[in-house]
Design the sequence.
């Protein structure tokens, strides 16, 4: 909990630590072509400021550790961070597993990669338009406010031209246990979009959903799921490591659906519609009827 300066406390058994800003210096970091690739600071301050320039280089990226596969600031117990205005890209897991509660992404950032800010305590976020997000970039947070407005937690795919594709969810940053408010316009739930959100225990999928991506709900606490008849693909591990024990594959009532098959046995059609291999991917085989636009 954050206690304002000047407050009176009565719990003499509690430990209190003053939060102060620390601005990183050249001695704290290693840089490669404008990207921070290592940080040797001891993080005695849980509020760090990353300046625009380090080692006479403009800071344009925050990468993965030079010597291992961890994000540079992953799991450091950070409560707050001020990012440099020069920043353009934030790489995989850069700030994963901290205790950030509020965050402002600078205007120059155009890319936030996989799991960059997942597993924090974010409640509010300032995010410029057009930032492309990787898999699960903000998963497992507590977001209820985005750019000063109420927020349902859904982050959508951003196209190369900066426009938003509101048919595709790429990350869930809210903290609702019951997800029964996915908009009906959503056709795609991207890989790992809800992955690791262990607090999620119930999900209602929209009626016109087409694709559930790889590991889309991996590690959630759901115990059952109803797949709408519109679904034609379920990625590997989409419901693995949950309380789900079997899937009932949809049986579309149309003239083009033929059968389901699994990537674990692509040469054989699935008999019946109940499957128990939750690590497999499932694809609906469907007819396609050529039309005038297909031929000369």
Sequence:
């Amino acid at each position: 909990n954050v206690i304002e300066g000047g407050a009176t406390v009565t719990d003499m058994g509690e430990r209190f630590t003053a939060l102060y800003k620390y601005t990183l210096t050249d001695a704290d970091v290693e840089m490669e072509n404008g990207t921070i690739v290592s940080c040797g600071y001891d993080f005695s301050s849980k509020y760090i400021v990353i300046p625009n320039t380090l080692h006479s280089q403009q800071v344009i990226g925050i990468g993965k550790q030079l010597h291992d596969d961890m994000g540079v600031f992953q799991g450091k117990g950070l409560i707050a961070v001020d990012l440099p205005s020069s920043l353009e890209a934030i790489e995989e897991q850069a700030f994963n597993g901290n205790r950030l509660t509020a965050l402002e992404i600078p205007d120059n950032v155009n890319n936030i990669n996989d799991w960059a800010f997942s597993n924090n305590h974010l409640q509010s976020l300032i995010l410029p338009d057009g930032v492309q997000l990787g898999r699960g970039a903000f998963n497992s947070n507590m977001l209820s406010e985005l750019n000063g407005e109420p927020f349902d937690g859904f982050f959508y795919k951003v196209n190369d031209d900066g426009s938003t594709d509101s048919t595709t969810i790429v990350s869930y940053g809210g903290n609702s246990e019951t997800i029964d408010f996915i908009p009906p316009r959503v056709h795609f739930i991207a890989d790992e979009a809800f992955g690791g959100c262990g607090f999620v225990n119930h999900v209602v999928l929209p009626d016109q959903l087409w694709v559930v991506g790889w590991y889309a709900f991996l590690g959630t606490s759901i115990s059952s799921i109803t797949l709408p008849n519109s679904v034609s693909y379920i990625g590997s591990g989409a419901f693995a490591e949950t309380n789900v024990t079997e899937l009932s594959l949809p049986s579309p009532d149309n003239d083009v659906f033929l059968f389901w098959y699994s990537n674990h046995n692509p040469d054989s059609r699935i008999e019946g519609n109940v499957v128990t291999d939750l690590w497999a991917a499932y694809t609906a085989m469907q007819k396609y009827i050529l039309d005038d636009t297909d031929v000369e």
In short: The chain has a mean pLDDT of 93.
